[in-house]
Amino acid sequence: MIETVKHSTSVAEKARINPRSGVFAWFARGRPTKPGETYGVPGQGDTMWLSVVSILFLLFVWWAITALGLVKPLFVPSPQAIVAKFVDVWQNGFTNTSFLEHVAVSTARVFGAFLLACAVGIPLGLAMGMSPVMRGLFDPPIEFYRPIPPLAYLPLMIIWFGIGETSKVLLIFLSVFAPVALGARAGVRSAAIEQIHAAYSFGASRWQVMRHVILPSALPEILTAMRVGVGFGWTTLVAAEMVAATKGLGYMVLSASQFLQTPTVIMGIIVIAAIAYAFDLLMRWIERKVIPWKGKM
Amino acid sequence: MGLNIKSASVVFPAAEGRPPVEALRGIDLAIAEGDFVVALGASGCGKSTLLNLIAGFLAPSSGEILLDGRPVTGPGADRSVVFQKHALLPWLNVIENVAFGLKMQGVAEAKRLAIAEDFVKLLGLDGFQKSPVYRLSGGMQQRVGIARALTCDPKVLLMDEPLGALDALTREKAQELILRIWNDTGKSVFFITHSVEEALFMGTKLIVMSPRPGRISHRFDLPFSRRVLAGEPARQIKASPEFIRLREEVLGIIFADEEEAA
């Protein structure tokens, strides 16, 4: 009898010492899934409400810090000040240019460069995927310039192409071009060899296989690359509008920062982020419409 | 006439410290019009290499492959292929997939859809013309693949383990369906499988292949598919003593090859 009690105590003690029990084990162990989910698929589950909570929490912390006067408004203006600044710029413009014109100018630069990069980068990427000659010729220059920060070659752009629109659009173009071209190149590998062989066995020519099998298979990768690419475009916008710009969101942020107008800086940043996010949502919607089959076969 | 393979060999050159591999040696095979030739063998015996040779994806190192007396120089619609899986185009619906081969051959849209419609019905896919192929079951996807290859009106239909990914019940139904279509269309078929039972049941001729080097080690003429088409129930044939005796004989050959390898 005594032996038994002793025994069970020692098991309980072991369990307490064992790191595989308690809170750690609760997090670490696999749990059965709910109906409709697949056991073991990483990261499944709805994130909508957590995202809302996350944003509200950050806004609250921001508001609390400013409302308690912990930081001077010069460094961190209150959320209300940002909204007020937005309304002010919306109504009165910024440096004699209306808000919408700033937005339009920047959007035109980014999307102009983006469309140009797609028009050149996607065909070139596909050609690099299809032909070892093209890959051999174009891989070194693209891989060489790709990791260089646009700010580093901005002076060269200005020396070579002047301070007009050309150098600005070209700078953004270069930042979008590499990811788009490399995405298209990788996409060429998406078609299953069975799909390609089947098409040839039905009498397709090399060109037809390219057009009707390889290109459609590459679409998911191309669209993903376009999403990544346009993100790089927005990232480069402020750099592009650093020199000799009188309009644009990047210009607005930079010149406001020179006059320590922190609310305008933050407002401009949020506007840039909002436009980029809206475009990403549009791209995701296009993905669902154009390639509903993505990842299904 | 038909397809003639004359002492074809394939040697893959040495690479990365491996010696050259003799994938096929001295293959002689004739596939006459209306033949259903089944290739069976342990893995690595060169079945798929042989199919690639006939399809024109691979050129023989020596020997020749003649179709109706003309040498095969590359892939073409007279030898369309059905693969085990991954060969359908998910951005096209069922009827577009079936009509795909004809599109590659430049057949006008109205005509190719009309032809495709016939084969969709022949394969029992009526009502699914507009369905996305990725929503279909494995068995139906495979029927789309077969319909698509048939629209090309090939002289020889090449099938690379077409039923290998199907569950047992679907597979037995598909076997009979393929036999019926083979009988109706009068096509020659070259069919690869891992299943001895399937091979005996479907073929008019069976070649058993052995590895290292890949070669045809045994040939059998088979009566069973004719009996199915004459109306005898499939399970009755597969359970008959002569079927079982032959099945064990062929299994014995393949197991001997496997043991030799191990």
UniProtKB/TrEMBL annotation, chain A:
UniProt entry tagged with the keyword Membrane: yes
- List, alphabetically, the GO terms of the cellular component aspect: plasma membrane
Q: What is its main location?
A: membrane
Source organism's superkingdom? Bacteria
Instruction: Give the UniProt subcellular location, in the record's own words.
Output: Cell membrane
Give UniProt keywords alphabetically.
Cell membrane, Membrane, Transmembrane, Transmembrane helix, Transport
One GO biological-process annotation of the entry reads: cellular response to sulfur starvation
Q: Has the keyword Cell membrane been applied to this entry?
A: yes
Q: What is this protein called?
A: Putative aliphatic sulfonates transport permease protein SsuC
Source organism (scientific name):
Limimaricola soesokkakensis
Q: Which gene encodes it?
A: ssuC_2
From TrEMBL, chain B:
Q: What is its EC number?
A: 3.6.3.36
PROSITE patterns named among the record's database cross-references:
ABC_TRANSPORTER_1, ABC_TRANSPORTER_2
Keyword Translocase, does the record have it?
A: yes
Any one GO molecular-function label of the UniProt entry: ATP hydrolysis activity
Q: Which keywords does this Swiss-Prot/TrEMBL entry list?
A: ATP-binding, Cell inner membrane, Cell membrane, Hydrolase, Membrane, Nucleotide-binding, Translocase, Transport
Q: Which SUPFAM superfamilies match?
A: P-loop containing nucleoside triphosphate hydrolases
EC top class, as a word: hydrolase
- Species of origin: Limimaricola soesokkakensis
Protein name stated in the entry? Taurine import ATP-binding protein TauB
Family, as annotated: Belongs to the ABC transporter superfamily.
Every copy of the ABC transporter domain together lies at 5-236
